[in-house]
Amino acid sequence: MADIICIVCPKGCHLQVDEENGYKVTGNNCKKGVVYGQQELINPVRTITSTCKITHAMLPRVPVKTTEAIPKGKMMDVMHQINHIELEAPVHIGDVIIENVSDTGINVVACRDMEAVQ
Question: Domain of life, per the record (predicted)?
Fold first, then answer.
C-alpha cells in the first residue's frame, strides 16, 4: 500500500494505492484522484516548466515548457537539454525550442513572446 498526496487539484487528497489489488485507490474525493494515484505508481509523468537563455532580448531568459507530460525518469535529461539551449530573439509563444525532447515525441515550446532589442 502506497500513501501519496494527489496534486491534480488544490484539495490535496491523501491517497492510498493498493498495488497488490489492481492499484485500487482510496482516499480520493474525485475521479481524477483515481487516475492520478494509479498513474503515479505505474508510470509517473510530469510537465516540465523552465527557462532558456536568450540573447538580444529585453530579458535574459524566456519561459518554456513541455507540450505534454513526460515520464518522470526523463526529467533530468530534459532539463539538461533545456539548460544547454541559447536562443536568439525574437521568439514567439508556441515556437518549438526542442523537438522530440529525449525521444519522447514531445516538444519544448516557448511560453512568451520575446522581441529583439538593439
Answer: Bacteria
In sequence order, what are the residues at sequence separation of 6 or more whose Cβ sits closer than 8 angstroms to the Cβ of residue 89? 54, 55, 56, 57, 114, 115, 116, 117
Its pTM stands at: 0.82
Please report the DSSP string for 47-101 in residue order.
Answer: --EEEEEEESBSSSEEEEEESS-EEGGGHHHHHHHHHT-EEES-B-TT-EEESSG
Mean pLDDT in consecutive groups of 10 residues from the start of the chain, 118 residues: 94 95 95 94 95 97 97 96 97 97 96 94
